[in-house]
Design a protein that fits this description.
alpha+beta, Nucleotidyltransferase, domain 5, four-stranded mixed sheet, globular, 19% strand, 4 strands
Length: 159
């Protein structure tokens, strides 16, 4: 089949790729190195992006989680996967919490979170495991058991 470029039909719905690490933008160094323990609130935040399926298409959800309190301190939703989604989420977290200098904000290092710093580095999901775990729990509880007719309906759902 490979020789003739024949592939079996895909099953199920295509899942969007929310982390595109195949970019040449500079990214910040990995300061946490999988050590996600925070001594005090607003010292370590994790940021990530996931998706919610709707009949209209995908609704993207970005969130920032405080690793000391385990609270979501900022979030944003959009029907487009753009860097503004990440920026809006971090702005909300900063307005809600007003952290002191020294805060480490860690992400999956995808293109939406690229910044002017070091070169590429490891982009595995394990590098942001607690945030991936949050999104997994969210999807296994309300999201995957609900059929949203529209993005607006999904936005209004009590996540």
């Amino acid at each position: 089949m490979k020789g003739h470029d024949i592939r079996p039909p895909r099953r199920g719905r295509r899942v969007p790729r929310t982390t595109d690490g195949r970019h040449n933008l500079d990214i910040a160094p990995n300061l946490l190195r999988r050590n996600f323990r925070a001594a005090e609130p607003d010292s370590i935040w994790l940021a990530g992006i996931s998706y919610v399926p709707t009949d209209e298409g995908w609704l993207y959800l970005a969130a920032v989680k405080d690793m000391a309190t385990m609270e979501i301190v900022g979030w944003s939703m959009s029907d487009r996967l753009k860097s503004s989604l990440a920026v809006d989420t971090i702005r909300m977290a900063l307005q809600n919490r007003r952290p002191v200098p020294g805060l480490v904000c860690h992400s999956d290092r995808g293109v939406q979170y690229a910044s002017g710093s070091d070169g590429p580095g490891d982009r595995s999901k394990a590098q942001n495991a607690p945030m991936e775990s949050f999104f997994s729990s969210l999807k296994n509880e309300p999201v995957h058991r609900t059929r949203f007719r529209s993005r607006q309906e999904a936005r209004a759902a009590p996540f």
